[in-house]
Design a protein that fits this description.
This protein is mainly α. The protein has six helices and no strands. α1 packs antiparallel against α4, α1 packs across α6 and α4 packs across α5.
Amino acid sequence: MNGQLIVLESQERNLPQFRRAYLLAASAVMVVGATAHLAVIGIGPRGYAALGAPAGLVAMVGTASYRPAATCVAIALLLLLGAAYGFSGVGFCPQLPGRRYVLPLVGAGLIARAVLLPVAAFLQPALLLGICGKCQVVNDFVLFTSALCLFVGAAYAAGGSLQRSA
């Protein structure tokens, strides 16, 4: 019995370390996602299509329209802001205001996206035509991006519990 108590106490002490490492890894994934969204601006139409941009947006890339680049920059900025909050949550950078609330909110949004996108692609694919060029069916792209969102979202939701004392 005493041996079990020591194991439980050890696991309890390691849980915050695991959550910090998990949130740090998830924040790094956000930075990679932001970098990918910025890289496609230089790559061109094939890059946009690879990231799942709708056909209309991909067609605009060769024109004088600023919309494709602005869309990617906006997504990248949101991802970098999320990453900054994740890094702040683990103490990797200065503490950002509201991180106690932002981390679980970001987590909930990403988990919702992870669950709802495959459901929408399966039940109502027409709803996704203007949002995602590769999301009209449940395919590898939908499953991979949903798994990433679930991984990152769970880390942010768990990371929010690290902020209770903050």
